[in-house]
Amino acid sequence: MRLVMLPAIKGVDCQSFAGLRPSVSRNFVCVRPTIKAPGRRMFIVRASETRDEPMKKLGLTDEECEAAVVAGNVPEAPPVPPKAAAPAGTPVVPSLPLNRRPRRNRKSPALRAAFQETNITPANFVYPLFIHEGEEDTPIGAMPGCYRLGWRHGLVEEVSKARDVGVNSIVLFPKVPDALKSATGDEAYNENGLVPRAIRLLKDKYPDLVIYTDVALDPYSSDGHDGIVREDGVIMNDETVHQLCKQAVSQARAGADVVSPSDMMDGRVGALRTALDAEGFQHVSIMSYTAKYASSFYGPFREALESNPRFGDKKTYQMNPANYREALVEAREDESEGADILLVKPGLPYLDIIRLLRDSSPLTNCCISGFRRILNDKGWWGSQND
């Protein structure tokens, strides 16, 4: 409850309620003076106990208010709150001679919000969506609550839900029928394949939706690798990049906004940029998986796409987690070749790499991690998912 002390002035006194009316709503209570001062009569106006009700005015003109102040009848404001007491036993010490105290900008929620450098909202998220040729959404065992979405129905419905909470960027990952897979992954650039069809469908319904695509051969490869595998197990770099260029162009032609090479082949960003530009897709961005580390965290993704490698591992092209500075080498190559966005994957275990690239590159940094639960926790999403 606020107490406002006001002096009595000509034409204003307690007997006439200073222009106020007695009220049972407890907006104001006018009482006789309780504080005595020479030549001054005081009364108390109690502000509304209901915070959303404005304080009623006294009905005085500006001239009357100014005259009261000039006459020495200065209104009394509420007293300064007393300084909070320290617990018993707290040592008494002189203040440290600090010119700067960064905690000053963190002392209240309002100040923290005022000085916040980074705002995380649903608009910052890129939503990974797994799609398949079926009519129904099928659960993914390794990711409880997540589904392979039927591209004609479930995908459209899920995108609609995402847009309702402010998520307007998605990235598509396809589960391709085994019968369409091959050693060279030719299905990756089929103009009427699963991903191009899904892109065209979504762009028809949501023209402003930002669609990212995955550029890699592993969902289309009978070997489960991101590139063409030679008979001795070697992943062929330049031949793979040739296929990736055709894949990226087919995705851009369908309406993709951003193509995302995740294969970690050398030189693929420059080759993709050249191929896209040659076909008139200068406006299509490239989000490069600049630092994609060999990781067991990819297991659930591979199960979702049924793209586990049949033999060997991916360490000859995905990065060694023990190497920190190698990320700089990859970033500089991708920048020089025309990448628009640099991505680190996995995200949460490599926050140091994200920071490294953030400090060393002017390009936008990105990471891939689950975020559906974040939206749930903030009340931004209606159903439980991760």
UniProtKB/TrEMBL annotation:
Record field: compositional bias (Low complexity): 85-99
EC number: 4.2.1.24
Keywords per UniProt: Allosteric enzyme, Chlorophyll biosynthesis, Chloroplast, Heme biosynthesis, Lyase, Magnesium, Metal-binding, Plastid, Porphyrin biosynthesis, Transit peptide
Compartments, record wording: Plastid, Chloroplast
Superkingdom field: Eukaryota
A GO cellular component entry from the record: cytosol
Main enzyme class: lyase
Any one GO molecular function term: zinc ion binding
Region of interest: Disordered: 76-106
Pfam families, alphabetized: ALAD (PF00490)
Pathway where this protein functions: Porphyrin-containing compound metabolism; protoporphyrin-IX biosynthesis; coproporphyrinogen-III from 5-aminolevulinate: step 1/4
Cofactor(s) demanded: Mg(2+)
Catalytic activity: 2 5-aminolevulinate = porphobilinogen + 2 H2O + H(+)
InterPro entries: ALAD (IPR001731), ALAD_AS (IPR030656), Aldolase_TIM (IPR013785)
Family: Belongs to the ALAD family.
Subunit relationships: Homooctamer.
NCBIfam families tied to this protein: PRK09283.1
Physiological role: Catalyzes an early step in the biosynthesis of tetrapyrroles. Binds two molecules of 5-aminolevulinate per subunit, each at a distinct site, and catalyzes their condensation to form porphobilinogen.
Protein name: Delta-aminolevulinic acid dehydratase
